[in-house]
Amino acid sequence: MQTSHALAAAALLSVAGLGTGANAALVEASTWNGGGQQSTYPHAVGWQFTALNDMTVTHLGVLDLGAAGLADRHTVGIFNAAGDLMVSATIGAGLTGDLYSDSMIYNAVDLTTLHQGESYYILADNWTQDQYGWGWDAVSFSDDVEWINFSETTGPSIFDTVLHYDGEPGTLGPGFMYEVVPSPGAFALLGLAGCVARRRRRA
Fold first, then answer.
1. What is the pTM of this model?
2. Which numeric CATH code is attached to 3-202?
């Protein structure tokens, strides 16, 4: 783990509980464990996945290997299965992100919901200087995300035609942070707990 990222991770932990819900916490969809393989590439790269729970995307980010700070700016986007852009962000060169966690740099985005059981893909451009990584042991995914395929475009833009390939799981160039959307039953339990608390105070 890079030293500057480790220091910034402390700041990340301090805001991890500040979400859209009362007890919401930010979760990284994918994390870099080191090892594996790294490479540069002239096209946009990323990965396809299925959402195993309803998730609210809060940040988009990219992998930052080597010396702390990106060599180039990266545009990141999440698309649905039909290829429609759901949310995007640009992470500038250097250390200009909103949040840092281990080897990832993130920028906040407009809150965007990904729905349970639906497939999406995430892409980031400009990998001619910065490196993306892959490898089964090199990348871990959260319990709310199921990796499907490696994804790349036919050109340098995230909006170029995308191709999905199976193979060794664990691609990480772009990534995202999210909050799990509470189920209706959880909301009902929270409401019931609130009613009980109010009744006790009145008593």
1. 0.81
2. 2.60.120
